[in-house]
Inverse folding.
């Protein structure tokens, strides 16, 4: 098979975003735009992906890690100049190079694949992916001759009135025969309104030397939008959200209000999960069958077990078992490992703690740096006092222990299996298995003393 390569253009600053963050790093549904592009390219069988970096090069490299090779474009002299930076790697290769902009996050691998196939089937030297836009403002226009063949692409800023009236736009995605591409790029000049070396000029250069140039019209303009400003960013977010949610619905997930539900692109949700309105679920979260999330919950990179219910709560980087009840208003912080059939009630914070099966922390407690066994009942207002101002310490609570309300467990400390801690205790010594520990001042009742405070 023909060798296939990709070049991703990601060196621009993105002036129109008016942001400290480089354009291609702006997230869409929680993932930087350039990652969306590269993730789709990864699904194609490519020899190599080369990303052209410039502004924010280090940050872009950090995001893409080893998913791409990188070439530095020191000065941003235009998209044609950007592709030239890949010459060293590609000009000697026979094959096809697909060029994609780092600011077109909605393109799917299916569209990219069909562009590649079309290009190779046509035997073209260049094929541009075009789309029909209701409002083509800002895009390059595709100019066809009387035979309807593509002649050239004219940028919005360079276009005359007739050209501006054209609705067929350049999506910024192309396939090229490698050798033809780099030969034509040598001839691109910067004689235009923006003083830039335009990649689309390659089309006209090839056409003029009678090399075959073709266009593949995408059926969906929406998929090809280029995100140059925050308005387009919000549009991309909306389209991506809809696409992701509809995919989950097709897989058997119920969304009570998909318009108000934000699911990241890497989230896995099994059949018969119900997502209530107002949830944001992100990162590599996996939600097992029958779970119910929300309303208004924020879940980032968690496993949520089957039939678990998470109501109005926040959870991050944690593992939550099956048939667990969380919330309302619980905060599950990183490294919580919550076993099956646990109950975490309102105003409870769990951090870096394991809880065994059937344990309950029903109200107003902080459990941090702790190992809690199974069948443990932690009463309202219990605190694992884990921090001495310098170090964090561990609290261990054995199986079937009962911690009375409003107890402070000063770590490091161990509460034995089946032990009882009386309500209001401040425990700073280990409690043996099956013991009752009371650590509070004794109550004194002074008969009739209250009367002294009352006026007649
Ligand atoms: C570009 C196309 C336009 C097309 C549109 C589609 C050109 C000249 N114009 O316009 O025809 O309709 O995309 O979205 O190509 N970049 C670099 N180095 C540079 C300049 C840009 O790497 O020197 C990168 C940018 O980071 C960006 C991409 O190339 O990811 C496109 O550049 P941008 O400035 O957004 O081009 P548009 O004006 O959108
Ligand atoms: Ca753009």
């Amino acid at each position: 098979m023909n060798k296939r390569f990709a070049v991703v253009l990601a060196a621009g600053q993105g002036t129109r975003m008016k942001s400290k963050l480089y354009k291609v790093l702006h997230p869409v549904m929680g993932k930087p735009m350039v990652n969306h592009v590269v993730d789709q390219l990864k699904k194609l069988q490519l020899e190599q992906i080369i990303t052209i970096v410039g502004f924010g090069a280090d940050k872009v490299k950090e995001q893409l890690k080893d998913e791409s090779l990188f070439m530095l474009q020191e000065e941003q002299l235009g998209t044609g100049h950007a592709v030239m930076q890949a010459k060293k790697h590609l000009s000697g290769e026979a094959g096809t190079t697909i060029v994609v902009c780092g600011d077109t996050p909605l393109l799917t691998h299916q569209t990219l694949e069909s562009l590649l196939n079309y290009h190779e089937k046509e035997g073209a030297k260049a094929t541009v992916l075009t789309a029909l836009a209701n409002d083509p403002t800002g895009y390059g226009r595709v100019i066809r001759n009387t035979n309807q063949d593509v002649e050239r692409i004219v940028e919005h800023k360079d276009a005359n009135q007739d050209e501006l009236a054209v609705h067929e736009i350049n999506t910024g995605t192309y396939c090229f025969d490698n050798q033809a591409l780099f030969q034509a790029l040598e001839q691109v000049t910067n004689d235009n309104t923006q003083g830039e070396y335009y990649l689309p000029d390659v089309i006209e250069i090839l056409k003029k030397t009678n090399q075959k140039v073709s266009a593949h019209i995408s059926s969906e303009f929406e998929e090809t939008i280029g995100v140059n400003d925050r308005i387009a960013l919000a549009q991309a977010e909306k389209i991506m959200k809809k696409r992701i949610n509809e995919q989950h619905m097709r897989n058997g997930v119920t969304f009570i209000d998909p318009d108000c539900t934000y699911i990241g692109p890497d989230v896995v949700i099994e059949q018969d999960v119900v997502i209530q309105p107002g949830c944001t679920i992100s990162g590599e979260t996996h939600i097992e069958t029958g779970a119910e999330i929300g309303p208004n919950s924020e879940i980032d990179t968690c496993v949520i077990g089957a039939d678990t219910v998470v109501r109005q709560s926040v959870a991050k980087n944690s593992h939550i078992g099956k048939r667990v009840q969380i919330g309302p208003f619980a905060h599950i912080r990183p490294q919580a490992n919550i076993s099956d059939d646990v109950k975490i009630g309102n105003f409870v914070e769990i951090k870096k703690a394991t809880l065994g099966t059937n344990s309950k922390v029903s109200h107003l407690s902080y459990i941090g740096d702790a190992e809690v066994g199974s069948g443990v009942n932690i009463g309202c207002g219990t605190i694992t006092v884990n921090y001495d101002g310098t170090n964090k310490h561990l609290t261990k609570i054995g199986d079937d222990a009962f911690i009375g309300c409003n107890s402070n467990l000063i770590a490091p400390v161990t509460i034995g299996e089946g032990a009882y801690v009386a309500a209001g205790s401040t425990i700073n010594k280990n409690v043996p298995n099956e013991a009752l520990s009371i650590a509070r001042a004794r109550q004194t009742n002074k008969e009739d003393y209250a009367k002294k405070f009352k006026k007649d």
About this structure: The CA atoms of residues 382 and 407 lie 5 Å apart. The longest strand covers residues 168-177.
